[in-house]
Design goal:
The structure holds two protein chains of two kinds. The mean pLDDT of chain A is about 90. By secondary structure, chain A is of the alpha/beta class. Chain A has helices at about 40-45, 70-75, 90-95, 95-100, 105-120, 125, 135-150, 165-185, 195-200, 220-225, 230-250; strands at about 1-10, 15-20, 30, 55-60, 60-65, 75-80, 155-160, 185-190, 205-210, 210-215. In chain A, about 45% of the residues lie in helices and about 20% in strands. Chain B is α/β, with parallel strands linked by helices. Chain B has three domains: about 1-225, MetI-like fold, CATH 1.10.3720.10; about 250-350 and about 455-510, D-Maltodextrin-Binding Protein, domain 2 (3-Layer(aba) Sandwich), CATH 3.40.190.10; about 350-440, D-Maltodextrin-Binding Protein, domain 2 (3-Layer(aba) Sandwich), CATH 3.40.190. Chain B contains 21 helices and ten strands. Chain B has helices at about 1-40, 40-55, 60-70, 75-100, 105-115, 120-150, 160-170, 175-205, 205-220, 225, 260-275, 290-295, 305-315, 325-340, 360-365, 390-400, 410-420, 435, 465-470, 480-490, 500-510, and strands at about 250-255, 280-285, 300-305, 340-350, 350-355, 380, 405, 425-430, 440, 455-460. In chain B, the strands form two sheets. In chain B, strands 2-1-3-10-4 form a five-stranded mixed β-sheet, sandwiched between helices. In chain B, strands 7-6-8-5-9 form a five-stranded mixed β-sheet. In chain B, strand 1, helix 11 and strand 2 (about 280-285) form a beta-alpha-beta unit. In chain B, helix 3 packs across helix 4 (about 75-100). The longest helix of chain B has about 40 residues, at about 1-40. Chain B starts with a helix and ends with a helix. The relative contact order of chain B is 0.10. Classes of the chains: A alpha/beta, B alpha/beta. The interface of A and B includes residues 71 and 151 of A.
Chain lengths: ~250, ~500
């Protein structure tokens, strides 16, 4: 996937201002920055939930506007903070939404459901007929992930997928998602405000401020050579946490 | 009595159901698409809900009556249907808009995010999630509409309201109760059937859907009787035919206002015209001006009206000429302005008269209306009387400003007088209860109260109809004040049926 010069204004100063990046197959990019920096808008520009004023998005050589918006979105998974499961549909129906929209055969959908429910550690036989209201936050987010993966997209877009979860749940989920990424193989763009999430999950990190990407690169590059004060400040808090944690481990 | 009421039940029930269901269906067909359209457009949703709420604040009976002039004097099914459909709009529209707006924004975004089109999001996510709220609106609408449909009697649509209106006027409380109970049961069964359908969809249970369907068939079952051929009534067993030119099989539409005398006269006209071979379409319990408009527009062929009513409410005249002069002027005006023919007077007069109990008359030495001047007595009359010239004229001429006035349904006036709750009432001079309660009618020497000669009105078309003229001719000047009062008394006091009273009157007119 590649984004070129994406720009969007909601009537004031641009929320997203000339954002460009490339993403290799299977690679994960984290968009990180303070709230209001334009990272969520950037994500929505990628799947056309927000239409850009200028710039273009390409996926496998195809430009976003060569397809209708819904056809474009069916090519990519989308995971949101609150999971966004449809409360009136059973879990199996929730996960099967995109394959159905894509017109898959029922048999193929069934196979896909069994596989995905197994992969997220929630067997279809046990969970398929339940409703979203019966799930914990972590379980709901797993189903949300399964739903995003169900149409076999090349890329998954994730908007703060872990931020509503408690620390323990978040930790297991991050590990599970890394495992899934290895097993299935998909590229991902993840929006987060938590540097340690980005650090653990992403291959590269893009730091955004005031609608622009200030610095993009692997975590160690950002840490060794922060492009400006904003990036440096963003790294301070996790650095202190890391110091405190390692000193605690040493004493123990 | 009961058999007579049961005989008309199927058509009243069918009328009620047809009105209610078509109004609710229209409400759904308009409100849901419009609600969907408006839900995302606050500028449209606000005014639309405002309009629907405004309609809702109009009292049902007024909304129904208003539809008659709006639809150019049409009476019957259509104005009633239009008013009830308007009535059903608000709850469904409001709940559609509120229900759709209540779908959480993240879910709407997720629906697009998984690749749904706008329409797919609407049908697969938004409508299913808003459905419980929309169905609640539908249930409210159906209960309102079934209830309000009982008010369609005064605009000439047949419904269960005919039991209520006629029962109220003829003091047949059994009929009133029957009409209320059936309409309430209908509303409840419909409400619960919709609820069962909703539950069955929610829980995906066929069993509940079957119960719902059972409820609906319960509602529809009485219609089978409406479709079954009726066995005819006791009415055709006598041969009254007089005319050389029979009306064979032609349908004549008759109208009656909503009081005992009008019900009896409508029955009398029916018997007369059926004797000449006509089929009768009877619209009972109409509002006074609604009935006149229907005659003028030709929707009703024959009706009975009163000179004083036409004089004051239609011609808006304030003077009070002698009886014969008024009849002549009214006839001329009707023909000139509306093409309506005042065919013939029936011979009696049903005027207002100030009445007191004999005990009150003797105690206070009351002989004439003027004797009431300066007293603090309470005067009861039907609400429309106090809005008429008759009241302002008599008040000014006889100095009745000090009387306390109370508007009440004429059915209750006589008992209120007998109980001493009120001291004076405006009785109708043909009311059987004047004799029954031994009331004294106060003299009115100044002639301030106009005459109310009953006469036959014919629509412009009927005015040209020779066969109809011949059929109605025997009724001209055929009924005296005493006879009419006696016939009214049979229904109001002796609990005889309207049909029996009319038959009795028919026998008298043939003498």
């Amino acid at each position: 996937m590649s984004a070129r010069n994406l720009t969007k204004s909601f009537g004031g100063p641009p929320a997203v201002d000339g954002v460009s990046f490339d993403l290799a197959p299977g690679e994960t990019l984290a968009l990180i920055g303070p709230s209001g920096c334009g990272k969520t808008t950037t994500l929505k520009l990628l799947n056309r939930l927000v239409e850009p004023d200028a710039g273009e998005v390409r996926l496998g050589g195809q430009e976003a506007h060569e397809l209708s918006a819904h056809a474009w979105r069916r090519r990519m998974g989308y995971v949101i903070q609150s999971a966004g499961l449809f409360p009136h549909l059973r879990l199996a129906e929730n996960v099967a939404v995109t394959p159905r929209l894509l017109g898959w055969e029922p048999a193929r959908i069934e196979v896909q459901l069994i596989r995905l429910f197994d992969l997220i550690g929630m067997p279809l036989s046990e969970f398929g007929q339940r409703f979203p209201a019966e799930l914990s936050g972590g379980q709901a987010q797993r189903i949300g992930l399964a739903r995003a993966l169900a149409g076999e997209p090349d890329i998954i877009l994730m908007d703060e997928p872990f931020s509503a979860l408690d620390a323990m749940t978040k930790d297991t989920l991050i590990e599970d998602m890394k495992r899934l990424r290895t097993e299935i193989g998909f590229a991902a763009v993840i929006v987060t405000h938590d540097f340690s999430e980005a650090l653990r999950f992403a291959d590269r990190i893009a730091v955004m401020d005031a609608g622009q990407i200030i610095q993009i690169g692997p975590a160690h590059e950002l840490m060794s050579a922060p492009a400006n004060d904003t990036v440096a400040r963003l790294l301070e808090a996790p650095r202190r946490t890391a110091a405190a944690v390692s000193s605690a481990f040493e004493k123990a | 009595m009961f058999a007579e009421e049961l005989a008309v039940f199927p058509s009243r029930y069918a009328g009620h159901l047809l009105l209610s269901l078509s109004a609710i269906a229209t409400g759904l067909a308009v409100s849901i698409p419009f609600g969907i359209h408006a839900a995302g457009r606050p500028r449209l949703a606000g005014p639309a809900l405002g309009f629907a709420s405004l309609v809702q604040t109009i009292p049902g009976i007024a909304l129904l009556a208003l539809m008659v002039p709006v639809m150019g004097g049409r009476i019957g099914f259509w104005p009633a249907y239009a008013a009830l459909a308007l009535y059903s709009l608000l709850p469904i529209l409001r709940n559609t808009i509120v229900g759709l707006q209540g779908v959480p924004a993240p879910l709407k975004e997720a629906a697009l995010g998984v690749g749904m089109t706008g329409r797919q999001r609407l049908t697969q996510v938004e409508l299913p999630l808003a459905a419980p709220v929309i169905v609640a609106g539908l249930r409210t609408a159906s209960v309102w509409v079934v209830g309000a449909a009982t008010l369609s009697t005064p605009v000439g649509a047949e419904s269960l309201g005919n039991y209520i209106f006629q029962g109220l006027q003829t003091r047949d409380w059994g009929a009133v109760l029957f009409g209320c109970l059936v309409s309430a049961t209908l509303a409840l069964v419909l409400d619960q059937a919709i609820r069962l359908f909703e539950l069955s969809a929610e829980r995906r249970s066929h069993r509940l859907a079957i119960f719902g369907a059972a409820g609906i068939s319960l509602v529809l079952a009485p219609l089978l009787f409406a479709l079954a051929p009726s066995g005819g009534g006791p009415r055709l067993d006598r041969d009254f035919s007089v005319a050389a030119e029979p009306l064979d099989g032609r349908t004549v539409t008759l109208a009656a206002k909503s009081f005992t005398e009008q019900y009896i006269l409508a029955e009398l006209l029916s018997q007369r015209l059926e004797a000449e071979g006509a089929r009768i379409d009877l619209r009972q319990g109409l509002g006074s001006t609604i009935m006149f408009d229907a005659v003028a527009s030709g929707e009703v062929d024959v009706a009975i009206d009163y000179t004083g009513t036409v004089w004051a409410t239609l011609m808006e005249r304030e003077d009070v000429p002698p009886r014969a002069v008024m009849y002549a002027e009214v006839s001329a005006w009707l023909l000139e302005e509306h093409g309506v023919l005042a065919f013939a007077p029936l011979g009696f007069e049903n005027a207002y008269a100030y009445a007191v109990t004999r005990e009150t008359a003797e105690r206070l030495d009351l002989v004439s209306v003027g004797d009431l001047a300066g007293s603090g007595l309470t005067l009861a009359s039907d609400p429309e009387f106090f809005g008429r010239l008759e009241w302002t004229r008599t008040r000014d001429i006889y100095g009745l400003d000090t009387l306390r006035t109370r508007g009440m349904e004429s059915t209750f006036m006589y008992e209120a007088l007998a109980n001493g709750e009120v001291d004076v009432i405006t009785a109708y001079t043909t009311d059987g209860r004047i004799d029954a309660y031994d009331l004294v009618l106060l003299e009115e020497p100044a002639g301030a109260l106009p005459p109310y000669d009953a006469f036959i009105l014919l629509s412009p078309d009927a005015a040209e109809d020779r066969a109809l003229h011949a059929a109605l001719a025997p009724l001209a000047n055929a009924i005296s004040n005493d006879e009419m009062r006696a016939a009214n008394g049979k229904v109001d006091l002796d609990r005889e049926t309207v049909m029996d009273a009319a038959l009795w009157l028919t026998d008298r007119t043939r003498d």
